[in-house]
Please model this.
Amino acid sequence: MKILNVGDFNWMTGAERHTANLSLFDIRRKFSLAAIRAGHLVVEYSDRAVARSSAPFGVRALGRGAADRRFLQAVDELRPDLIWLHFADDLSNAALAEARRLAPGVILADIQIDPVWTPKTQARMALRKGHVDALFVTTADPALARFAGPRAFAAFLPNPVDPSVETGRAFDNPAPAFDLVFPASDEAPRAVGSRELSPSLATALLKSETPGLRLLAPGVGDQPQARGAAYFDALLSARIGWALSRRGDQPLYASDRMAHMFGQGLSVLIDRRGGFDRYYDASEAVFYSELADLSVALARLIADDARARALAERGWRKTWDLFHGDKVMAYVLAQLFDEGGARDQPWPCARWAGSGPESGL
Model:
């Protein structure tokens, strides 16, 4: 199969880029890697990079016409069977329609990994309604079918781990520098049990509840974010990872940091409300309901390092068994190309049928 994978692959263009901001562990990269291992031809196209580099005065919005044109040139040369769209905001729906003409029978799938309740994500999903064949989201909510157009469907997407990305084994580190790592990208409130707390306040409260806690929190307060290899180093410098998402009550939703933590062999703290206890038991992950019981569980792990390492290794093994990128890729392709969709996977496999005005697909 020939696949055109569209997304911001962090080609270093545009004056706004103050770092290389390399795409090392993003799902769009993992999609490419898994598809290539499965024997498919994958071509990556960065709509944003083309828009940035083609825009007068570096104003990305002025380069969207060029992004469309170069995209269609790629479609014409490759004639793909499948096009993935990862936050491909700089492509117009008219370009997608023309891609269907250039590559008859091509399947278009929109991939959404951001929190589905935010206006930005909902606008992105609504933009493609009636213009793509499938919408994959990292939240297991059948109500998301409202963003799929007629003759299209929405489906759940697990966060994958990849053997060429998550290569560490933190549980093999006999003496990590930190007890807990909690990376964050901004100070927007997160749901810590029943409370909405900024990362700075959440970490301050946790430290006060857990005396002596050695905490690494890149991106929190005045701490710089950990990017690229520094992010991997941060994960491997701790025994335990706090997988704190912006909300904890969405079915099977978690930031992809949870996959990074499990995949790199940390003990992982997870909000119970997300429903991941259907996959991990108490010997494989730590589930909490409020900050108080999170602190108690954290203190127990710190006091018993052998238990923390054993829990981390069991969670690591379970993650690679369930969420290996090759398994996730096989599921995605089955949803798109098998008449009955995917079957016999441990996560929800329903294809939530779309509705709405006819789109002419």
About this structure: The first strand starts at residue 2 and ends at 6. Residues 357-361 have pLDDT under 50 and may be disordered. The two ends are 21 Å apart (CA to CA).
